[in-house]
């Protein structure tokens, strides 16, 4: 299945689960630039489970909007497990949401390093006080890395809600 169709299918499925369970969701996105929230709000009726989402591309935005600490960003960098944990907790609190998805990564084609090559993406999921993190290194061009990250976050959110 083409990635864009997969995103649409997964977003609809996640939305249906959220609506059925009467849960709310928010996102805190960096490298995906709002792609997850776009996919979720592309479905009619999404206002039942989404109030607000955050695109926090800069470190300053992560700090101001989500409460990510300067020390976390300096010590671990924006693309790290520690940062996505703070992003998803901050987003859940700011949006008063049951589920929060945080994504931070290096989509490319530049910006990678030996430690964090292009395609490196960290994910944080927050559900009712429990946090989960995932780390992936995707291949492909910038658009493909971003689409794969969106698909992965939707899949993991569905898995978490169904567990």
UniProtKB/TrEMBL annotation:
<dbReference type="InterPro" id="IPR008136">
    <property type="entry name" value="CinA_C"/>
</dbReference>
<dbReference type="InterPro" id="IPR036653">
    <property type="entry name" value="CinA-like_C"/>
</dbReference>
<dbReference type="Pfam" id="PF02464">
    <property type="entry name" value="CinA"/>
</dbReference>
<feature type="domain" description="CinA C-terminal">
    <location>
        <begin position="9"/>
        <end position="156"/>
    </location>
</feature>
<protein>
    <submittedName>
        <fullName>Damage-inducible protein CinA</fullName>
    </submittedName>
</protein>
């Amino acid at each position: 299945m083409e990635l864009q169709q997969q995103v649409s299918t997964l977003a609809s499925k996640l939305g249906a689960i959220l609506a059925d369970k009467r849960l709310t969701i928010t996102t805190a996105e960096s490298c995906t630039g709002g792609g997850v929230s776009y996919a979720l709000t592309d479905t009619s009726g999404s206002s039942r489970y989404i109030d607000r989402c955050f695109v926090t591309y800069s470190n300053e935005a992560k700090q101001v909007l989500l409460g990510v600490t300067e020390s976390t960003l300096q010590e671990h960098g924006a693309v790290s497990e520690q940062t996505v944990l703070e992003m998803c907790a901050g987003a859940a609190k700011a949006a008063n949401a049951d589920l929060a998805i945080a994504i931070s990564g290096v989509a490319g084609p530049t910006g990678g390093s030996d430690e964090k090559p292009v395609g490196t993406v960290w994910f944080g999921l927050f559900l009712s006080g429990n946090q989960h993190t995932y780390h992936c290194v995707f291949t492909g061009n910038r658009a493909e890395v971003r689409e794969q990250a969106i698909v992965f976050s939707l899949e993991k959110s569905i898995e978490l809600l169904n567990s």
